[in-house]
Design brief:
The complex is a heterodimer of chains A (about 260) and B (about 325).
Chain A lengths: L1 E16 L3 E11 L2 E3 L3 E5 L6 H8 L7 E6 L2 E2 L5 H10 E4 L13 H11 L6 H11 L5 H5 L8 H13 L5 E5 L7 H18 L2 E6 L2 H7 L2 E6 L2 E7 H6 L4 H9 L8
Parallel strand pairs in A: 4-9, 4-10, 7-8, 8-9
Antiparallel strand pairs in A: 1-2, 1-3, 1-5, 5-6, 10-11
Chain B lengths: L1 H29 L7 H23 L30 H36 L2 H15 L3 H14 L6 H12 L1 H15 L2 H9 L3 H12 L1 H24 L10 H10 L2 H4 L2 H29 L8 H13 L1
Helix pairs in contact in B: 2-3, 2-13, 3-4, 3-6, 3-7, 3-9, 3-10, 4-7, 5-6, 6-10, 10-11, 10-13, 11-13
The chains are: A alpha/beta (about 260), B mainly alpha (about 325).
């Protein structure tokens, strides 16, 4: 079942220059993507290819210039503040930099508790906090609950953020380069955690990255983006082993090969 | 039975409140925010002593500060610790009971103006670009209104109507003219914080803007708020002193400003009555000094790049490194 889809979505940033002139930057140009339930979809592209803009459009941080957003078959492009708030409980986002996405003045428990409170969680909130922290393998939860972000490592912070995003049981998780700021040794743990969460919770994940290696590791399908357009898409294995577009080939060749000896 | 239950719940509530208060107290004392820094420590001690003089000064002053009870121009002695004025008033009593109003006006201006500037500044920084620029324009207008001149204008106007300017109108005018600096600072700070990921994250989680403002933004700019409070209090004390010194306020009120006014009007500096003119001047300077010390101290604590590490610590860590 198609959970979230875009239909010919475009985003043009205009910047005023003086009185009459303006510069237009086309960030997205006629992009069609879709994600089915319980699927991990990759968005690959170099910096400036529009993949983060697309992620921000999907959570209503930007409004599209043209095109449609479909969620569970309904057109949600014109959603207003209250509808957007409800929609955001279904679609959550994980940020790139775990050092910036947690409030340094609040502890771990606060970060996981707040979304539960704002969404009006009916059960025992503290129990749910423990449960979510266990889920992202931060155990024992009592040990982590009173820690502040500066007392945690990058990987632990990203787990806390995952817990915060997953606390309200979203249907889709948008992960915007979730491992690019992390140590290479920690990356695989987070990626395994993401795959495990998909199995256990049955959520869909949009995994955004510039790193072809990690894409082939976790995703089912992949969209390759270049200067605001989707240039190629298909099953991850097919695209990686048999790229048709020139840009995809360049991207795959540019990825470092771990088996190559210097 | 039911009554018992109610008592139980009541006790539980009381104990949780008690625990909360205890936690807060232990946090305040163990956080070492003010005690870890020598400047802040000195400033705090000075400020607290001023505060206690301000609170009890009027009660423990040995004589009526406004009574013309004694011989004129007497130098300091055991019965008059700071001598008497040219009108036969006891200077020490005046100094003690003058502390209260001076501090009250200063701190009220600090509180009121800081409250206004938090509200205006933070909301300006966190609202849309257009609203933000409109509020910025308003802030800039208030920035150029000279508070003391407005008070002088109003004071002379009221003198013409045979009335004198009380403390409350003064607090009001100083607050109205003193909030703009803080608002400007808070606005720019909020602008920078509002773009960070953790605020964006809270928006996505579904927090209301009000909650983000008070739970996250105000909390992250708290050191700046404290520093702004002290600076605005300095402005309040200065404003009061200056206005009273010019003789625009009520001259029968006893505060450090009117003391300066009377002593200078009677040319105490020419007739050698140093015990009349020096004490209020020194007290005002020390009060400012305590505010500034506190400010510097808090700045150093909140801004790690200004923090100095003692050489002892450094040596110890070097030894540890060697051992490791």
């Amino acid at each position: 079942m198609e959970l979230l889809a875009t239909q010919g979505i475009s985003k043009i940033f205009t910047k005023r220059r003086g009185m009459f002139g303006e510069t237009r930057t086309v960030a997205l140009n006629d992009v069609n993507i879709s994600i089915n339930s319980k699927e991990i979809v990759g968005l690959v592209g170099a910096s400036g290819s529009g993949k983060s803009t697309l992620a921000r459009l999907l959570v209503f941080l930007y409004k599209p210039t043209s095109g449609k957003l479909l969620f569970e078959g309904n057109d949600i492009t014109g959603y207003r503040s209250r509808q957007i708030r409800k929609y955001r409980q279904e679609v959550q986002m994980v940020f790139q930099d775990p050092y910036a996405s947690l409030d340094p003045n609040h502890n771990v428990a606060w970060h996981v508790r707040r979304p539960l409170i704002t969404s009006g969680y009916s059960g025992n909130i503290e129990e749910r906090v423990d449960q979510v922290l266990e889920m992202v393998t931060l155990s024992p939860p009592e040990y982590f609950k009173n820690k502040y972000p500066h007392q945690l490592s990058g990987g632990q912070r990203q787990r806390v953020y995952l817990a915060r995003a997953l606390a309200v049981e979203p249907k889709i998780l948008i992960a915007d380069e979730p491992v690019s700021m992390l140590d290479v040794s920690v990356r695989i743990e987070i990626l395994e955690l993401i795959s495990k969460l998909r199995e256990e919770l049955g959520i869909s994940i949009i995994y955004i990255t510039h790193d072809v290696n990690t894409v082939s590791l976790v995703t089912d399908r992949v969209y390759v983006m270049h200067s605001g357009m989707v240039v190629e898409h298909g099953n991850t294995d097919d695209v990686i082993s048999n790229p048709t577009h020139k840009y995809t080939r360049e991207l795959i060749e540019a990825a470092p090969n771990p088996y190559k000896r210097i | 039975m039911q009554n018992n239950k109610f008592d139980e719940a009541d006790n539980k509530l009381k104990s949780t409140i008690f625990i909360r208060v205890k936690q807060l107290l232990s946090k305040l004392t163990s956080s070492n925010i003010l005690m870890s820094n020598n400047k802040a420590k000195a400033g705090l001690i000075l400020f607290l002593s001023f505060l206690s003089i301000g609170v009890v000064g009027g009660l423990i002053s040995p004589y009526n500060p406004n009574g013309f009870l004694f011989g004129r121009n007497q130098p300091p002695s055991y019965s008059h610790l700071l001598g008497t004025t040219a009108y036969g008033q006891d200077v020490f009593s005046q100094l003690l009971s003058g502390a209260g109003p001076t501090l009250f006006v200063g701190l009220s201006v600090g509180l009121l103006a800081t409250a206004v500037s938090i509200t205006v500044g933070v909301f300006a920084g966190f609202s849309s670009e257009r609203v933000s620029s409109i509020i910025n324009g308003i802030i800039n207008v208030f920035l150029v209104i000279p508070g003391i001149l407005v008070i002088m204008l109003l004071g002379t106007f009221m003198l013409g109507a045979n009335q004198s300017l009380g403390y409350f109108p003064m607090i009001l005018i100083l607050s109205v003219t003193g909030w703009a600096w803080g608002a400007r600072t808070f606005r720019s700070q909020t602008l920078s914080i509002a773009k960070r990921d953790f605020i964006l994250s809270s928006l996505l989680i579904g927090e209301s803007r009000l909650s983000i403002v008070f739970r996250q933004i105000v909390r992250s700019i708290f050191p700046i708020i404290i520093s702004n409070f002290f600076f605005t209090s300095i402005y309040g004390v200065m404003g009061l002193t200056f206005v009273e010194y010019l003789g625009i306020g009520n001259l029968l009120d006893v505060n450090w400003g009117t003391m300066l006014y009377w002593s200078i009007n009677n040319e105490a500096y020419l007739t050698g009555l140093w015990w009349w003119i020096l004490p209020p001047s020194i007290m005002i300077s020390l009060l400012m000094f305590s505010f500034i010390l506190l400010n510097f101290g808090i700045d150093e604590v909140s801004n790690p790049s200004l923090r100095k590490y003692s050489s002892v610590k450094r040596k110890k860590s070097a030894v540890d490194n060697k051992n490791a």
